[in-house]
Specification:
The chain is mainly alpha-helical. The protein has two domains: 196 residues, Fumarase C, Chain B, domain 1, CATH 1.10.275; 281 residues, Fumarase/aspartase (Central domain) (Fumarase C, Chain A, domain 2, Up-down Bundle), CATH 1.20.200. The protein is built from 18 helices and nine strands.
């Protein structure tokens, strides 16, 4: 069963072992982040930093440590300036623009970057991991602009704000307000941390921002797929739909697991044990009849999306990789966010399809030509007052606008690679843009869901009030769900502004207020 908001007293421990999407979401929502202090683990992390120091003492060449960055890798850095180089990296990347990531998103970014560095292949000190964990534990969330990453060489610009926080620069959210990080450090009695030779690059050169956003997006997409199924059940009841469209024997002949799962949920929501309702139409329109075939695609995609997100989450994805055991400095491209880009581009497509589905269901419910006897626009007004009441007319217009905007954003970001940084970064993933797109599509689709949900509940109650269906004809889970929704928005007997109720329902969706399907 999908859980509601995370218990803030929960603790997620980072010790080099794999984390799950749920762990990142938990930290984002306020769970504590703890770093293992097991002596063997501490030694393992320290070994990477010590190897870097030995390699430098032996005049070894390491990209980004004894050389410039990117196209400047041909520029040798004098030994006397090696320790000043990381700070310059953090500062010249401090050029992000756009809105700032939220507190929740910033905490997810901290957890994701810490998890990657905790794998022990980045050549950083244990003290650096401690500081990242301490920032999360003190709820000091770097203020990170959303725009400025092409997703390879990693999330350089947004992660520079994390690196800057470590050295006590720039701004952060703390205690509900924006503060200069230097002021926060003074108040807490903390010293800034001077970055060791590879540490600026290790923090910044990776996929932590896109991966953190992907974790949050995955959780929301999973919940929305469940909610759109429940809305479909309500819409079917409201319009006198045919529950046999979801019969188990029908779906046994097309064995997509996610599609079968959705059909099974719908079949039981529509109470196969009740007396058959009056058959209004042999075959319902596609937005009802084919709902498992739409929602089921996302349900089938979620497992492989989880796999790829969690592989990225639990990977060392900076450059170069430090293999202490083999005493190798391995220069490569693990900062490339192609897998996350593909997952997010795919997710926004599938989620926007849910928005389109729910919008079409809402259009059927408000239209007396298609809703099989429900009042026009689902108005609850009666008598002479019915002439001046318009029920859900404007909500349907709004839902259509939100769905259209979601659909507009489904163009894949990953195909818009740009050649940057003197053609050193000549093929990039655009993974962070794809992730930001996916979150926007989710927001819009959750708004469509809010409007469709209130309309579907109104339609069901109109049927109940007219006596066309009895309460005992509804599955207990469906009846209980209607009662829960009504706590946020009462029956619409007369026109009233619905903005605040819609916002409350969107908030309930985003905090997973309602349990949906085991």
């Amino acid at each position: 069963m999908v859980s509601a908001q995370t218990n803030p007293h929960e603790t997620v421990t980072v010790d080099g072992r794999p984390l799950r999407i749920e762990d990142v979401v938990a930290v984002a929502q306020g769970a504590s982040l703890a770093l293992s202090n097991d002596p063997a683990y501490v030694r393992r992390i320290q070994a990477g930093a010590e190897f870097i120091e030995r390699h430098l003492a032996e005049d070894g060449i390491i990209y980004g440590v004894t050389t410039g960055y990117g196209d400047s890798c041909t520029v040798s850095v004098p030994e006397a300036l090696v320790r000043a180089l990381p700070l310059h990296l953090t500062r010249y990347h401090g050029c992000g623009l756009g809105e700032y990531f939220s507190r929740e998103q910033g905490r997810a970014i901290l957890a994701t970057r810490l998890q990657s560095l905790a794998q022990g292949f980045s050549g950083v000190r244990y003290a650096l991991l401690e500081r990242l964990a301490a920032l999360a534990c003190a709820d000091i969330v770097p203020l990170i602009p959303e725009e400025g990453s092409v997703g390879a060489s990693g999330d350089l610009t947004p992660l520079s704000y994390v690196a800057a926080a470590v050295v006590g620069e720039r701004r952060a959210l703390w205690r509900g307000e924006v503060h200069e990080i230097a002021d926060i450090y003074r108040e807490l009695g903390w010293n800034s941390l001077e970055l060791a030779p590879k540490e600026g690059l290790a923090i910044m050169n990776g996929t932590a921002v896109m991966t953190a956003l992907a974790c949050l997006a995955w959780r929301r997409a999973d919940y929305l797929s469940r909610l759109s199924t429940r809305i479909t059940a309500l819409a079917s009841v409201a319009t006198g739909g045919n529950r046999d469209h979801f019969h188990p024997r029908l779906f046994a002949v097309k064995p997509h697991a996610g599609q079968q799962e959705v059909a099974n949920w719908l079949y039981h929501d529509l109470n196969p044990h009740a007396e058959p309702a009056e058959q209004r139409r042999l075959q319902d329109r596609y937005s009802l009849r084919c709902a498992p075939h739409v929602i089921g695609v996302l349900r089938d995609a979620l497992p492989w999306m989880r796999r790829d997100i969690e592989h990225e989450l639990n990977s060392a994805n900076d450059n170069p990789i430090i293999d202490v055991e083999a005493e190798l400095v391995l220069h490569g491209g693990h900062f490339y966010g192609g897998h996350i880009a593909f997952v997010m581009d795919s997710m926004k497509n599938l989620v926007a399809n849910l928005a389109d589905l729910m919008d079409r269901q809402l259009a059927l419910m408000v239209d007396p030509k298609f809703n099989h006897g429900l009042p026009q626009n689902l108005s609850g007004a009666r008598g002479a007052e019915a002439a001046i009441n318009h029920g859900f007319k404007a909500v349907q217009i709004g839902a259509s606008a939100w769905a259209a905007e979601a659909l507009k954003l489904t163009m894949p970001a990953s195909v818009f690679s740009r050649s940057t940084e003197c053609h050193n970064q000549d093929k990039v993933s655009m993974g962070t843009i794809a992730a930001r797109d996916a979150l926007r599509v989710l927001q819009l689709s959750e708004q469509v869901a809010a409007g469709s949900l209130l309309a579907a509940v109104q339609g069901v109650e109109l049927r109940l009030k007219s006596g066309e269906i009895r309460r005992e004809d509804l599955a207990p889970e469906l009846l209980a769900f209607v009662a829960q929704v009504r706590k946020a928005s009462p029956f619409l007997a007369e026109d009233r502004p619905l903005e605040h109720e819609l916002r409350a329902v969107v908030a309930a969706i985003q905090t997973e207020t309602w349990d949906l399907y085991p």
